[in-house]
Amino acid sequence: MAEELIKLGFEYLVISDHSKAAAYAGGLTEERITEQHKYIDSLNKKFHPFKIFKSIECDILGDGTLDYDNAVLSSFDLVITSIHSNLDMDEDKAMMRLMGAINNPYTIILGHMTGRLLLTRKGYPIDHKAIIDACAKNNVVIEINAAPKRLDIDWRWIDYAIEKGLMLSINPDAHSLEEFEYIKYGTLVAQKGALPTSRNLSSYSLREFENFLAETKKKKGIL
Description:
Layout lengths: L1 H7 L3 E7 L11 H18 L3 E9 L10 H4 L4 E5 L8 H12 L4 E4 L17 H10 L3 E5 L12 H6 L4 E4 L11 H10 L13 H15 L3
């Protein structure tokens, strides 16, 4: 995946496998995380100045806690948190789980906020304004998931996110080399919501991205 992005002219890759609760997707145990991080270190030496960031798409569990403890989460460059299980929830349950993740200082990006799959599955009900407000308060970026079956956060909430001073991030959710092209769908969603480049985290250069992560972690008290 790094070689493909280098060929396409990108400066960095955020690699975010699933966490251990997602056994169906080969979610990483703590031991495999350690192995992956060592491998990333070796690849970063090989591919410099291109950089692979150590990330994880960490499951938000049923009680609002995350799939790893904070000691494990601290080993990543950034953590994306998402709900993947027990999706048949009322709003109170969904909000409790999402708020639990947003309030965890290691959450940098909130992934596919409603869990919807277009034409297949409605998203779980949430209070969008309350979630956006909480993300703004806790320095959490909201993902624009560019996979054409998701396109989540819905474009109609981008203006409110901008109003609240939020950063968003167009992420391809790529599970193969071909799916890097999904970025174009997320870009169209962002354009429809009038998101400026300055408020899209994935528009940042490598140096800008590194600085953003460092500043965000300082604000959260984890650096």
